[in-house]
Design goal:
Elements: H1 13-17, H2 19-29, E1 32-35, E2 43-46, H3 49-56, E3 61-62, H4 70-79, H5 94-103, H6 108-113, H7 115-127, E4 133-135, H8 136-141, H9 143-153, H10 160-171, H11 177-203, H12 209-214, H13 221-252, H14 254-262, H15 267-277, E5 288-289, E6 293-295, E7 298-300, E8 305-308, H16 310-314, H17 348-365, E9 370-371, E10 380-381, E11 389-390, E12 394-396
Parallel strand pairs: 2-8
Antiparallel strand pairs: 1-2, 3-5, 4-12, 6-7, 9-12, 10-11
Protein name: Cytochrome P450
Organism: Nonomuraea africana
Pfam families: p450
Amino acid sequence: MSDKLPFEFFFSPEFGADPYAAYAGLRAEGPVHAIDFPPGASGFVVVDYEHARPALSDPRLSKNLASGPEWFREAVSQQNPVLSDNMLMSDPPDHTRLRKVVSKAFTPRRIEQLRPRVQAITDELIDAFEGDTVELIDAFAFPLPIIVICELLGVPDRDRADFRRWSAALVQPALDDEQVRARREQSDELRAYFTRLIAERRAAPSDDLVSVLVTSEELSEREVLSTLALLLIAGHETTVNLIGNGMLALLRNPDQLDLLRAKPELLPSAVEEFLRYDAPVERGTFRIAVEDMEIAGTPIPKGSFVHISIGAAGRDPMAFERAESLDIAREDNRHVSFGHGIHFCLGAPLARMEGQIAFGTLLARLGDIRLACPEEQLRWRFSGSIIRSLAALPITI
C-alpha cells in the first residue's frame, strides 16, 4: 500500500480532468490506499473492481450517519440537513422501510408509462436548438432529466430553475466557511419549498411522487423531506452526467459514434458502456466501518471512512477487457455505476430509458456532431465531488 494520500488528491483540477490516470497508478500499487479524507480522520479508498463490488454491499460498512463520529454528524447537519434522513443514509431496517415506500413510484410498469413523455420532452428540446452550435449540457442534458423528475414529483414548471440551483449547490464540495454557509442556505431553501409542497399534497393528494410519500404512514416528516431532496438530486444529476460524459466519449471515439448511428439496436449496450467508461458518479457516498475489518489484506479500523471509487472499478483491466477503450457493443458489462446490493440505484431503469432515448434521438436527428471547442478548453464541475460532470459541452451540429 502506498503512503497516505493527501486530502487534496481528489480536489485538484488535474484529477478532475482525468481521474483515471491517477487511479491506474494507484491500482498498480494495490487495491486499497490510506487517505487523509476527511482531513485528520482514518480514511481509505478502494480502486479495483474485485474489492469495490463486494464492499458496496458489505454490511460492516455502514451508511448510517449515527455510525460516524460526532464531528461528522454535526458537519452533515450543518451543511446538508435536508439530506440526512433518507434511504441512502441508512442501514436496515430503516433502509428497508424507506426503500419499500419509494419503490412504489418506480415500478417497471410506471417507468415504462413515462416513455412517450420522455420522448416528447427530448424532441421538444432538440426542436429548440438554434444555429449550428449548441451547448449540450445547458440546452439538453440538464433540462431533460430535470423536467422528468419534476413531473414525477409534481413540481410546477415555474420552479424548475430553482430545483436546478438547489441540486447543484448540494452536490458541490464545501471546502471553506463561505461554501458551507452557501450550501446551508440552499439546503434551507429546498427544505422550505418541500415543506410547503408537502402541506399542499396532504390537503389535496395528486397522482405524483410527493403524494405517494406524504400519504404513507411509514415515513416521518423529516424522512419525507430528505427523501424528496435525494430524489431530486439522484433523479437528474446522474442522468445529466450520463448524457454529457457519454456524448464526449462518442466525440472522442468517432468510430463508435458512427457505429451507434448505423446500428441503433446497440443503444442499450452503449448506455451501459457510457456508465462504465466515464461513470456519472465517480465515487460512492460515504461508508463507515462499524467494526475492525480488512479489505484486500489492508486493516480497516472501526470508525474509518471507506471510499469506493466507482470510476476506478469501471476501468479495472482485471475486470474488463480493454478497459481503457470505449466499446458500445461490449457484452456482459458488469459495471457498478448504479451501485450494488441493497443500495443499488432505485432509479436505474428510468436513467437507462432516458439515456437510450436521449442518445438515440440526438444521433437520429442531428447531422455531423463535432466538438465545437478545443478539447483542452473543456472543464469539469466540482473537483472532489462524488459527481463527475462537465461544466459545458459545446457541439457543432
